[in-house]
Specification:
This protein is mainly alpha-helical. Helices cover 51% and strands 11% of the residues. It is built from 13 helices and seven strands. The longest helix has 17 residues.
Length: 220
């Protein structure tokens, strides 16, 4: 309900509303969070990429990446379609969120970046944002940076925003790797963080360093 209210809001969003809007993606590794935020400013491209991902679902990762490179979308959307098709599908299926997030990124860039950091500090304080086999969490000056533990292998987390930012963990955070799960909801509500299959960046991007630019470099 809180998310539905935010995506229907008009005008500038409050810090609390920004926290709600970006909570589901704030713990993504920076390499994928940047193109997600930028791609949200091109919702029509995201919808087209969603159709592309569905149409070319039978291709290998490399074949899909090559096909995506020929599309006339923003670079951020091509990058997601090439390497992170499940994210494209989520953003396309939830286009109201994508449009609202994109509007916030353009109109309230500093506030969005502040919300991302505020959420990361909350998750770390509650014990969910930690170094593990999948990721490295570092504080650089006053900012938390999330990067892959192995530079060539990236995992995207799924978690319950109503848990990780509000409820301190009672033991070590539970991470599930490379799963095919039937009881996601129970796992997420219990504070578990689900990591899908590993994305091998070199195989998809031929060694290119994705998302080397900062968010501000992308904002037009």
């Amino acid at each position: 309900k809180a998310m539905a209210a935010v995506v229907q809001a008009e005008g500038a969003l409050t810090p609390a509303e920004l926290d709600t809007l970006f909570g589901p993606v704030a713990l993504f590794p920076d390499q994928v969070l940047t193109p997600v935020l930028v791609a949200a400013t091109f919702p029509l491209d995201v919808v087209k990429a969603g159709r592309f991902v569905e149409e070319y679902g039978g291709l290998s990762d490399q074949e899909r990446a090559a096909a995506a490179a020929d599309e006339r979308w923003d670079d951020s959307v091509r990058e997601l379609a090439a390497g992170f098709p499940q994210l494209v599908t989520r953003m396309s299926d939830n286009v109201d969120w994508t449009e609202q997030a994109g509007e916030a990124v353009v109109a309230q860039t500093d506030e969005v970046l502040a919300a991302i950091q505020r959420l990361r500090f909350k998750a770390r304080e509650n014990g969910y944002l930690v170094d593990n086999e999948a990721q490295k969490v570092e504080q650089v000056n006053d900012k938390i940076v999330i990067s892959p533990a192995d530079p060539g292998v990236l995992y995207i987390p799924t978690y319950d925003s109503q848990v990780v930012y509000t409820t301190p963990v009672t033991g070590p955070p539970v991470y599930h790797y490379g799963y095919v799960y039937d009881d996601w909801d129970e796992t997420l509500v219990a504070g578990g963080i689900i990591l899908g299959g590993a994305i091998i960046l070199d195989e998809i991007f031929d060694g290119r360093d994705i998302s080397a630019a900062t968010l501000r470099d992308f904002i037009r």
